[in-house]
Write a structure and sequence with these properties.
Layout: H1 14-26, H2 31-38, H3 42-52, H4 67-108, H5 123-129
Helix pairs in contact: 1-3, 2-3
Length: 130
Amino acid sequence: MAKTHLVTRRVFSEEVRRSAVKAIESGKSSVAITCHNYGISTTTVYRWLNKYSRHLQSGQTIVIQMNSEATKNQELQKRIHELEAALGRKQMEVDFLTKMIEIGKDEFGFDLKKKLSTPPSSGSDQTKGS
């Protein structure tokens, strides 16, 4: 024997939803109390908050941090900016020196760069025996 009974579905008017959200936003009620009063789940209340709230919109992330964390983040951002500036200066220096080597090669007719294919000098071996 199968039980057949109809489940009654409750539909809350928009006015009721807005008043519940307003009570939560003003601090007169909490999500848990609203759930208990209306006999609904927390998911439903949070859906109402996302839909009708002026302050809490879906997709927004609110970052809560201590002042020391904010200060630390600002200092780290400043340090990053300083390091990026130093990197830019060094890159300009490398580009300048590379161009100078190219110009020197054109003027003197031979490559001014040190060639790494030749073995290192053995000058250090002579000082070991002394």
